[in-house]
Task: inverse folding
């Protein structure tokens, strides 16, 4: 019985993990149809913000919840103004440019911090479920994953900014004609998406440690989750994270984490063969 | 490029340059340079594989390294097991081509959009890289070959003369064989592009809907193009493996895919000369910049990639071609103007 609770908890954690890793990317993709290939490095930047500021004496919670999202969000806005904005309508070029950015960031951070793993202690310790020990931090991750999705939903559904964002998503030309400055909406979206990514990077830093190349370990999962989900930010992310998270976690239990990733890809490939626009391209079409 | 290859003088010029390098190169250049150039030749084959599918099939693959690595590992495992290299070289084309066809089936029959295509090809490469890194344990053995995980596979045989497993090629001969492969791939691709099949691919690149309305099976076509590109990338991987006599999971690395993209982008999408020039120029540049030890290869590669997208989206060869064309037109117009002014002095302008 305890074992099943632990396994079930692991499954939920895997889903939450995917939600956290991909939420920022999904926000940007949902709005701009652009995949930020430097996503992994945005996570890395969030992680480094947390580790360096914690080492400088900043409170961990402040570093994770405030500094990481702010700095990465700001960085995202700069990137949008300098790079992405020039490539509107040239989607493939924006993929290439962000991939270049990704390598530039890996190289740059390696130059500054060196190619070593740095970390901070995982907060809260563990708790016992029967004979098993479970890190309490897992619940924090699950909580924040839920909070991020809930937050995006509230903003999109109930605020004026969300209304404008949804309008731009549906029909940018029409929104522009009605006086929305879509260029600013895109900038804000990219900034917010980056900020959420920064938060995620900060949250996973205590678990994984940080190293300049850490992004590579997560981008595969994040990309697959987002394209499998499709363009709807919340339903898409949630449905694909649930599906892929449980499958990959089950495979991980049976065969190990590397095969978990491979299983994730295989399932996604088959799914995309059937639903080329992702889950929300056919099912849950009108959702957020 | 759309005109027939057979009537294009540039086509023969390229073959002539290639043959000259093949026969005269080893006579006049020292051994170290020959080995250096051999590396460029291998990478040029790899660049051509992406140059073909991107420029002439409209398929932008972010994961060309998956096939490069697959070819390299296929060659390594097969040649260690068989004890000669001709069949492994053929296998290293066929296996990646088959895998490319399988992956292509899922992507093109699913009608994935360009962004999805980019993401899927990239993630496939990533997974290969992870799997290859994971095979360090002694249980990962194929026949006599241990996969070796992140340690890689050492002592991969050098190419031998077909049918004579003990007649290994010396570096100069290896260079000549590789050069011959490069010429063969170049000629093959040019002829393929000039054929009916190639014309349809270009039609698909220009306008998929129109091509399918004209009755062409776009999906099947793309799968074939992608599969050919994958096979050539695999062949390049095998050449790389035998040239280094060593292969490790970095053959599947992001850097490898990124490099292929940068070469093609720098040289020019939609040409075959471009990717080769891209290899020569950028490998040389990376070598020079790497010597300064100030910047690592990631910074250089990333900066070049961003700069190319933002400043030179068409690449060198098309840009130069454009300039040459405008220059020519301007010169002609200028001559025409001069002619109009001084009608008496015809034929005097150079």
Result:
């Amino acid at each position: 019985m305890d074992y099943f609770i632990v396994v079930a908890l692991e499954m939920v954690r895997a889903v939450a993990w995917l939600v956290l890793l991909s939420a920022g990317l999904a926000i940007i993709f949902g709005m701009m149809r652009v995949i930020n290939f430097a996503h992994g490095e945005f996570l890395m930047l969030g992680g480094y913000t947390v580790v360096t500021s914690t080492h400088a004496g900043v409170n961990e919670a402040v570093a994770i919840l405030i500094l990481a999202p702010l700095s990465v969000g700001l960085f995202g806005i700069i990137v949008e103004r300098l790079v992405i904005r020039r490539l509107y309508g040239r989607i493939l070029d924006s993929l290439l440019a962000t991939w270049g950015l990704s390598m530039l960031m890996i190289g740059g951070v390696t130059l500054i911090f060196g190619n070593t793993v740095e970390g901070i202690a995982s907060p809260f310790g563990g708790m016992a479920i029967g004979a098993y020990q479970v890190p309490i931090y897992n619940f924090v991750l699950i909580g924040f994953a839920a909070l991020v999705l809930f937050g995006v939903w509230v903003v999109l559904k109930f605020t004026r900014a969300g209304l404008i964002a949804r309008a731009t998503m549906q029909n940018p030309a029409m929104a522009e004609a009605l006086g929305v400055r879509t260029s600013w909406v895109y900038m804000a979206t990219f900034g917010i998406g980056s900020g959420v990514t920064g938060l995620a990077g900060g949250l996973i830093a205590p678990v994984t440690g940080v190293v300049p190349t850490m992004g590579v370990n997560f981008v595969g999962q994040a990309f697959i989750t987002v394209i499998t989900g499709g363009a709807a930010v919340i339903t898409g992310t949630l449905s694909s994270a649930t599906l892929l998270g449980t499958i990959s976690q089950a495979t991980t239990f049976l065969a190990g984490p590397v095969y978990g990733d491979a299983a994730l890809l295989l399932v996604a490939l088959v799914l995309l063969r059937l639903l080329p626009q992702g889950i929300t391209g056919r099912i849950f079409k009108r959702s957020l | 490029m759309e005109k027939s290859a057979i009537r294009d003088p540039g086509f023969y010029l390229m073959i002539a340059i290639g043959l000259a390098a093949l026969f005269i190169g080893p006579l006049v250049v020292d051994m170290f340079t020959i080995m250096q150039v051999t590396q460029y030749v291998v990478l040029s084959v790899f660049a051509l594989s992406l140059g073909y599918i991107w420029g002439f099939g409209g398929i932008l693959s972010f994961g060309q390294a998956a096939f490069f690595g697959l070819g390299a590992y296929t060659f390594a495992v097969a040649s260690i097991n068989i004890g000669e290299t001709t069949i492994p070289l053929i296998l290293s084309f066929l296996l990646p081509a088959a895998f490319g066809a399988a992956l292509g089936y899922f992507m093109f029959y699913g009608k994935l959009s360009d962004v999805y295509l980019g993401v899927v090809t990239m993630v496939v490469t990533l997974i290969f890289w992870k799997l290859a890194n994971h095979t360090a344990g002694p249980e990962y053995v194929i026949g006599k070959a241990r996969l070796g995980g992140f340690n890689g596979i050492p002592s991969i045989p050098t190419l031998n003369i077909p049918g004579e497993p003990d007649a290994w090629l010396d570096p100069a001969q290896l260079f000549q064989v590789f050069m011959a492969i490069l010429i063969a791939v170049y000629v093959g691709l040019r002829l393929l592009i000039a054929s009916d099949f190639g014309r349809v691919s270009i039609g698909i690149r220009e306008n998929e809907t129109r091509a399918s309305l004209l009755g062409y099976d776009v999906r099947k076509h793309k799968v074939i193009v992608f599969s050919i590109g994958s096979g050539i990338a695999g062949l390049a991987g095998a050449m790389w493996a035998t040239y280094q006599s060593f292969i490790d999971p970095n053959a599947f690395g992001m850097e490898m895919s990124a490099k292929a993209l940068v070469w093609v982008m720098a040289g020019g999408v939609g040409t075959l000369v471009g990717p080769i020039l891209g290899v020569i120029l950028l490998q040389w540049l990376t070598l020079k910049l790497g010597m300064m030890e100030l910047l690592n290869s990631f910074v250089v590669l990333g900066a070049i990639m961003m700069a190319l997208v933002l400043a030179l989206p068409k690449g060198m060869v098309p840009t130069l071609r454009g300039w040459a064309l405008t220059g020519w037109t301007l010169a002609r117009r200028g001559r025409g103007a001069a002619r109009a002014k001084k009608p008496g002095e015809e034929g005097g302008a150079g």
Notes: Residues 31-57 of chain B form the longest helix (27 residues). Chain B has one domain: 5-340.
